[in-house]
Give the backbone structure.
Amino acid sequence: MPIELNHTIVHARDPAASAHWLADLLGRPAPVRLGPFHAVALDNRVTLDFIEAGPQLTVEHYAFLVDDAAFDAIFGRIQARGLAYWADPAHRQPGRINHHDGGRGVYWDDPDGHVLEIITRPYASAG
């Protein structure tokens, strides 16, 4: 059996709201409630399982590989909602996207400060 990532836990102040926010922004089905989790399913059978954060929330980074059509749709929703976005994870290039490896990429923050990213080409894929 190959080894595949199945799920990861995302800590959030309001897990239901955060899961719905991300699912809507990415154009995914509504999250599914599984015990204390609100699971957002991705196309590769991986879920992001949102759970209530403890007193100290650790900010994480989540990157999503998408095709050009999905990039356009997601980036359009980012812009339509007036969300701040950057071409880099350090937030030094505001209002821009990047073109690494011949693709496109953009970063933005979720309501809990997690740094989210969509890219159309995996890093180091240009050869």
